[in-house]
Amino acid sequence: MRRRRLRIALLALPALVGTVLMATAPAGADPTKSTATGGSGRSSLEDQASVRLVRIQLTGADLLDKVVAAGFDLEHGLRRVPSGIEGEAVVTAEQVAELRAMGVTILGDDESFAWSDEADGGLQALGARSVQPLNHTETVRVVRADWFTTKGQGFLYVEARTTEGQQADPVVGMQLENDSGRGTPFGYARTMSRFVDSGQYMFHRNLFKLDARPKQIRVTSSTGGVTTGTVSNWLEDAPSPLTANPGYKWDFVDGYRTPQQLYSRAREIARQYPDIAEIVYLPNKTNGYQRKAQATIGGTGQEAVVVSSAAWGHEGGNDITVEFVDRPGADLPLAVEVAGKAIRVLLAKNASGGLASTAAEVAAALESGSQGLVDRAHPYRTNAGTGIVAATAGPVALTDFLDQKRAGAPEGEVPRGPATIPVLRIGKHRDGKKPGVLIQAQDHAREWVPATTSLEAAERLVHNYRSDRETKNIVDNAEVFFILSNNPDGANYSFYNFASQRRNLTNHCPDENADPARRNGWGVDLNRNYRVGSAHDGYSGASTSCVSDTFQGPAKLSEPEAKNIIWLVEKYSNIKFMMSVHSNGGQLFWQPGAYIADGRITTPRPPLGDEAFYWQSAARILSQVKAHRETVVTPENVGGSSDVLYSSAGNVREDLYHTYGIYAFGWEVGGSVYNPGTGNWQGGSFQPPWAGDPALVSGHAETMEYANGIMEMFRIAAEWGKDKKDPTSRLLPGDGTYRGSVDVRFETSEPATIYYTTDGSRPTLESPRYEATEFREPGQVFHVTETTTFRWFSVDAAGNIENNYDPTKNDRREKYRTATIRIVKR
User: Fold this and answer.
1) Element holding 3 (H helix, E strand)
2) Which of 657, 691, 722 is the last residue of a domain?
3) Omega of the bond leading into 803 within 30 degrees of 0 (cis)
4) For position 679, which CATH number holds?
5) Which strand (E) or helix (H) includes residue 453?
6) Which residues form the Peptidase M14 domain (predicted)?
7) Which of 351, 373, 448, 668 has the greatest number of CB atoms lying within 10 Å of its CB?
8) Over 88-132, what HEC string results?
């Protein structure tokens, strides 16, 4: 079986609906036409490089780490395939050659691609092998088998794991069979794909298109193991979304929004609805939509000089001109003259009357003699500056290369200078006593749909508070904090200069990467700038290169945008839920988010109870997404982000969960949509056409369906805050006498963490926790061979403890659970 997926171009900037207009300086634009240049001629070396999206294939996570660390911009939609990892890269023509030199296969940039679902070997002799019965140590386990439908087509997703999966010679293969419903035989044998990440076996998994829902599956390993599993429903029979309620108001956002428009609307909502909304201003101002004015003079050789102003471009840097002057005469010294904002460098002459100033000498003279107008002057990139500088044809104007105006925009110029980010706080009781939910959108500048999705959710809350019972319940029993754009500087740059901008605008680059042709590579990836699982501590998925799209920054929390998040959750300690909204890939994930590549050592995994709560919440959230137009986020795209996507060192979710105990989700909205007309899964993009085909790729449709999911997260938080019911648990098969040995496990009435002992001691919060058999699997099974007494208690996600037991006190009235497994020897 082969699948095909249609690729959507990333870089075609759509016409914007509403008051937002097309960027006036898109990728590849000629800076000589910018209003910031004053019409002066510019060097072609300062043109923004033309970029395009190409499909790539990497041999595995190790190569992925190298590509990311080298500064390449990889789109979020990475997919593990039997031969490694496939994805998309935003690259220039020069970078394509560099990728090939690193060992990356370029699959092309055509309209579609295909991959094989065949495994990497090991099944040829299966038909002749007799299957041996399993003992208590299972050699094959079904992790999950999920059925879902979308657009009239059924799909079966299966994950299975073998204890011998790490074996590579010969590679262990796996075969899947399924029935066609209750009472029908197994059949339709297909090979499953084996996945290895950073040298570690993960699982075998596949998504299969089927005509009928199976009841059971059978998985057989090439080494002889076999097991069966029951098929579950994934996002089937989803409850109606709030939009189905009579009189419910929705569909408020009619186009993409700049940061200024988002913030303006947030302030207006607070003004219109003061009884349930207010603005909280974050204390750390951003760098600002501003840059120093620059010019590269003299080409790229040893004679080239890069000049940067001391003042920001809009504060006078753009008025500076620099001229290199060849004077008549001989034996003349190098000198600098300044008249207003005009700098003239009088080049030195030798005894023969020839020019004698090197680029290094001119750069030093500019820094010392420009009367403070020039902040940095240096040879081009890694040059030593030994070449002799030539005279210019006239004054060269410095510019910050930023577009200053948006035609038709009501507020005129894009605001310059540091920005203060407002947080829209919605809740009837904003006193810290109700659970808080933080919605953080647009950490990455080019991701426009997360901002509109978040704004749509905010609009739904305030417009339906007085008329919709469920909305009133949310606002009365939870507080919501909306950061509609956490990266306003980068977002403005994405709208008006370079559509593919991902990071903020803070330039931490040294001279070798500080010339203006590098300007689209500056900035920090805000979602790599946090403290837990950071690349500073050896975790994979972030770069030390200042021109990498995953640049981690010079230090943890170096950026004001990241500091603000920590300030917010520390000031408002009632924040217990968080959604970092990104695009585009169609994933919903949580911890662990990063790992050390050598050995694939992840950050700590959540306890089984928290993991179960994440899965339960995900099913509810994604069911509401599906209810809009049947978009299905598949199970393979749900879970720990380092398991379903890649390692992302220093991400915000890890910090908030591990440091503050916040249930922190990451969401890649805008995933693939099944196209029944072609039988393909059609991918999204960072800036899909707003009014595209509503059944397929559409910014408007994505905004509405994922806003459904955010609203469901609010319902979860409100219910969590009112949850006072203790969980219950039991040991299966339970108290009793057994011959020989017995396998036992715990079961809970709801997602809950179990603390237990088997040594006769009283269970406490320091006791062992009941853990998963393996990641993405249910709880472990204890193989009991001697009489053993289990003592335990459970704690649910809201902190309720079973039977009102207090594990911190040594109370004679012990309320923990107990069960004795008595073993009678045969």
Assistant:
1) strand 2-6
2) 722
3) no
4) 3.40.630.10
5) helix 449-464
6) 378-710
7) 448
8) EEEECHHHHHHHHHCCCEEEECCCEEEEECCCCCCCCCHHHCCCC
Q: Which residue range forms the structural domain that includes residue 811? A: 729-824
**pLDDT for the residue 139:** 86
The tens digit of pLDDT for each residue in 503-561 reads 999 999 999 999 999 999 999 999 999 999 999 999 999 999 999 999 999 999 999 99
Give the Cα separation of 575 and 660 in Å (integer): 9
Structure confidence at residue 682 as a pLDDT band (50, 70, 90): confident
Secondary structure, 3-state, 606-643: CCHHHHHHHHHHHHHHHHHHHHHHCCCCCHHHEEEHHH
User: Does residue 146 belong to any structural domain of this protein?
Assistant: yes
Surface-to-core class of residue 191, CB atoms within 10 Å of its CB (0-12 exposed, 13-18 middle, 19+ buried): buried
Q: Are residues 500 and 433 in the same domain?
A: yes
Q: Give CA–CA dist 752/734, Å, rounded.
A: 19
User: Has residue 809 been placed in a domain?
Assistant: yes
Instruction: Determine the Cα–Cα distance for residues 293 and 317; give it in Å rounded to an integer.
Output: 5
Write down the number of H helices and E strands in the chain. 12, 42
Q: State the amino acid at position 812 in one-letter form.
A: R
Do both 447 and 536 map to the same domain?
A: yes
Q: What angle do CA 62, 584, 557 make, to 5 degrees?
A: 65
Higher pLDDT, 766 or 61: 766
Where do runs of H (alpha helix) occur along 320-383?
Answer: 359-369
Any idea of the CA torsion for 122, 125, 126, 132, to the nearest 10 degrees?
-100
Q: Are residues 519 and 574 in the same domain?
A: yes
For the residues of 274-320, what is the DSSP string, one character each? TTTEEEEE-SS----S--EEEEEES-SSTT-EEEEEEEEGGGTGGG-
Q: Determine, yes or no, domain membership for 614.
A: yes
Backbone phi and psi for residue 635, each to the nearest 5 degrees, phi listed first: -60, -30
Q: Look at the block and give the residue holding tokens 């010294």.
A: 333
616 shares a domain with 676: yes
CA-wise closest residue to 61 among 161, 200, 204, 203: 200
323 DSSP β-pair partners: 344
Same domain, 65 and 81: yes
Strands (E), 435-476: 436-441
Beta-bridged to residue 603, according to DSSP, are none
Kindly state whether residues 557 and 703 are assigned to the same domain: yes
CA atoms in the 13 A half-sphere facing the CB of 336: 21
List the catalytic residues.
668
- For the chain, the straight-line distance linking the first and the last C-alpha, in angstroms and rounded, comes to 50
Assess if residue 532 is contained within a domain. Answer: yes
How many angstroms separate the Cα of 4 from the Cα of each of 80, 160, 169, 275, 565? 15, 23, 30, 51, 40
Looking at residue 154, which CATH number applies to its domain?
A: 2.60.40
At 760-815, the pLDDT tens digits run 999 999 999 999 999 999 999 999 999 999 999 999 999 999 999 999 988 767 89
CB contact set of 733 (below 8 Å; sequence gap of 6+): 742, 744
Residues 439 and 362 in one domain: no
Report CA torsion sign: 728, 733, 737, 740. Answer: negative
Q: Are 714 and 600 part of one and the same domain?
A: yes
Could you tell me which residues are beta bridge partners of residue 147? Answer: 156, 233
Q: How many domains does the chain have?
A: 5
Distance of CA 168 to the CA centre of its chain: 32
Q: What is the pLDDT of residues 643-662, one digit of tens each?
A: 988 899 999 999 999 999 99
